[in-house]
Specification:
By secondary structure, the chain is of the alpha+beta class. It has a domain of 101 residues: Alpha-Beta Plaits (2-Layer Sandwich), CATH 3.30.70. It contains 16 helices and five strands. A five-stranded antiparallel β-sheet has the order 2-3-1-4-5, sandwiched between helices. The N and C termini lie far apart (68 Å).
Length: 340
Amino acid sequence: MFYKSIIQGRFSFGTQKSYDKVLKMFEYRTETYYKGDIMLTMEEIFNAEELCLNVPRYVGNASDKNFKNTIDLLNYCAQFAVAGSFQAWMIDEGKVLNHANIVPHSDRTVVTQFNKGEKLFRAQDKNTEALEAFSKTIESYAKHAQAYERRGWVNLRLRNYSDALYDFNKAIKLDDSIAFAYFGKAIIAMNENNVDVAIENFSKTVKKSVALESIHWRGRLRKAEALIELEQWEKAAFELKFFTKRKFNPKDSNFKRRPRAFSLYGKVLTEMGLYTEALEMLENALKLESDSTKVMNHSETLLYRGLAKKALGKKDFLTDIKLSADEGHEKAIRLLEELS
């Protein structure tokens, strides 16, 4: 039985000695341990100039054994790496059968320092310490793309926007496959009202990730929000259609973003004059509400549901507009005055 498999990632080895060793061991283990039964060929993935193992994205069919052999070999290579990561998925009709996240693992200073930074980064309230850890990682290995990307997010948390932008750009220069770096650049652009630049970087976030990753869908949703600011309704609808049709695992952070997505889609469809479809989306947004998944800008959802109902000749449209006005929505208040 063969299954669709996706592999993407990059390992940097730092020194010629480490690169030569991993190259030799890759060839030896491929022939001796796995009898050639792996998904990747040495000639295609090793880069002698950059001292790295690089797979921008591999998509193919693999048997269970073929997939596991490849993951085992990549995990073996990870002990020689100083930076990078690999993601791999085996899928059957949309269901993930196997997923691997492979990162460098050794007692080398660069690796341990970066891992320390990761722990501090996830703690949320250890930003200064995380910044120091990632800076030390970069001091130990100046081409550590992930350390720059992570430091960029710490700087973003600290509102050091120029420093964050520098870090994200540096990360991309070293490894242009890091979707989170583009997402960070987009967030900065939105904060500075550079909507076109934000859309460009949200688009790259989507392109550099796969649909099995949470960041892919965050990129689509935020891109839609940016397109709405420019009143590019059809382009926004394209992104929101994909997001609202996606079945997210409750553990996925995007699960809680569904009410927001349905609300935005309803607004966009209303602006496009597709009132029946808009009403369905807005109803879905309100049905998905709970204490933990409240529709962002609830008053706007009510307003647009009222507008869709009005266009469809439904008598209770005024109730939604009044509720929206009661919640302080300025457009609803003005509209209510006009209707009165």
